[in-house]
From TrEMBL:
Keywords: Glycoprotein, Signal. One of its GO terms (molecular function) is hydrolase activity, acting on glycosyl bonds. It comes from the Eukaryota. InterPro entries: CLN5. It comes from Dreissena polymorpha (Zebra mussel). This is Bis(monoacylglycero)phosphate synthase CLN5. It catalyses: 2 1-tetradecanoyl-sn-glycero-3-phospho-(1'-sn-glycerol) = 1-tetradecanoyl-sn-glycero-3-phospho-(3'-tetradecanoyl-1'-sn-glycerol) + sn-glycero-3-phospho-(1'-sn-glycerol); 2 1-octadecanoyl-sn-glycero-3-phospho-(1'-sn-glycerol) = 1-octadecanoyl-sn-glycero-3-phospho-(3'-octadecanoyl-1'-sn-glycerol) + sn-glycero-3-phospho-(1'-sn-glycerol); S-hexadecanoyl-L-cysteinyl-[protein] + H2O = L-cysteinyl-[protein] + hexadecanoate + H(+); 2 1-(9Z-octadecenoyl)-sn-glycero-3-phospho-(1'-sn-glycerol) = 1-(9Z-octadecenoyl)-sn-glycero-3-phospho-(3'-(9Z-octadecenoyl)-1'-sn-glycerol) + sn-glycero-3-phospho-(1'-sn-glycerol). Residues 1-19 form the signal peptide. GO terms for biological process: lysosome organization. GO terms for cellular component: lysosomal membrane. Belongs to the CLN5 family. PANTHER family: CEROID-LIPOFUSCINOSIS NEURONAL PROTEIN 5 (PTHR15380:SF2), CEROID-LIPOFUSCINOSIS, NEURONAL 5 (PTHR15380). Exhibits palmitoyl protein thioesterase (S-depalmitoylation) activity in vitro and most likely plays a role in protein S-depalmitoylation. Catalyzes the synthesis of bis(monoacylglycero)phosphate (BMP) via transacylation of 2 molecules of lysophosphatidylglycerol (LPG). BMP also known as lysobisphosphatidic acid plays a key role in the formation of intraluminal vesicles and in maintaining intracellular cholesterol homeostasis. Can use only LPG as the exclusive lysophospholipid acyl donor for base exchange and displays BMP synthase activity towards various LPGs (LPG 14:0, LPG 16:0, LPG 18:0, LPG 18:1) with a higher preference for longer chain lengths.
Length: 331
């Protein structure tokens, strides 16, 4: 309760004019993708190692026939096999096969430096923080059907023309250049309740990509049923803290935030990791507080039961001119 009162006062005295009238908070798009910070490095797998150059989508003849596939496989399958698939922690992608030419492609959208590295801020020795949270599209030749079929999903969802694909390809380049950061968490007031923040990850990319395909003429096979993973946090109404400049101006607040993220560093000893995970458990579940970063701004989440929950729920394939179907409260 003390933490909630403290940050309620912070809202009154530090940012009295801020009022969030739209929930969930809209994801902010940017005019262009910024240069990648060289500090940020992938731990095991580099981003898009066999992919095409940035902003180079394939182009097809207008009357070519293109098959569209939904692809799913367990996260970290290269390391843990189907282990995370048993908990429905799945990675999503899209496959395209040109029937006329025989060429096929896989399109994915994911974090540039792996999931854990982009979910939490990196804290430095001088107690400053760096966010390595960019996400981007990757398209590469071929579809590894064995990979997707073995532990996941490989299912055709539509046939489209080359003209539809080319229009979609233009959208992918726009989306990739303006939607620049990855967001792991979805934040709600309660299960099936009001959404405070929407995630922005591999699943949400596939959902908005399917929506765009429908908008430009794709007709999806409505008999196909697909589920998607969400990692959910639950809190009372979030309290806005400000951007980096604002929170740095309050030394006590900035220290609280950096101390919180220090508990989630991937490069630390096993003993330190266990200690920090216990501390994080106390802070989130006992003290009921979580510092959340969205649109390059900080928020305080007054956490409440069930605190965190994984869901794997169905989202229907879109129909032409349907609107933002992926924001349905059941997903």
């Amino acid at each position: 309760m003390g933490a909630r009162l403290k940050y309620g006062l912070l809202l009154v005295f530090v940012v009295p004019c801020f009022c969030q009238n739209e929930w969930p908070v809209p994801y902010r798009r940017f005019p262009s993708r910024p240069q990648f910070n060289s500090y940020c490095q992938a731990g095991v797998v580099p981003f898009c190692p066999t992919g095409k150059a940035s902003n180079t989508m394939p182009q097809f003849h207008d009357f070519d026939t293109i098959e569209v596939y939904a692809l799913k496989a367990p996260v970290f399958e290269f390391k843990f096999g189907d282990l995370l698939g048993k908990f429905h922690i799945m990675h999503d992608a899209i496959g395209f096969k040109n029937v006329d030419t025989g060429f096929s492609y896989t399109l994915e959208w994911y974090e540039l430096v792996e999931l854990f590295n982009c979910t939490f801020a990196h804290t430095l020795q001088n107690d400053s923080m760096i966010w390595c949270n960019q996400g981007a599209a990757c398209i590469y030749d071929g579809i590894d059907t064995k990979h997707w079929i073995e532990n996941g999903t490989f299912v055709k969802v539509a046939d489209i023309t080359g003209d539809v694909f080319n229009k979609f390809a233009d959208w992918v380049e726009w989306d990739n250049n303006t939607a620049i950061y990855y967001e792991t968490w979805t934040v709600w007031d309660k299960p099936d309740g009001k959404m405070w923040f929407d995630s922005f990850d591999c699943a949400s990319f596939v959902l908005r990509a399917f929506q765009k395909l429908a908008d430009v003429g794709a007709k999806f096979n409505q008999s196909v049923r697909l589920n998607y993973t969400r990692i959910n946090l639950y809190s009372d109404q979030p309290v806005y803290l400000g951007n980096e400049t604002v929170v740095k101006a309050d030394q006590s607040l900035y220290k609280n935030i950096t101390d919180f993220y220090k508990k989630f560093q991937s490069h630390q000893s096993y003993q330190d990791l266990l200690t920090h995970l216990v501390e994080a458990y106390i802070e989130v579940f006992d003290q009921q507080q979580f510092y959340f970063f969205y649109n390059f701004e900080y928020w305080f989440l007054p956490m409440k039961s069930p605190f965190i929950k994984l869901t794997y729920l169905e989202v229907p394939l879109p129909k032409p001119n349907s609107t933002l179907y992926y924001r349905n409260k059941h997903f």
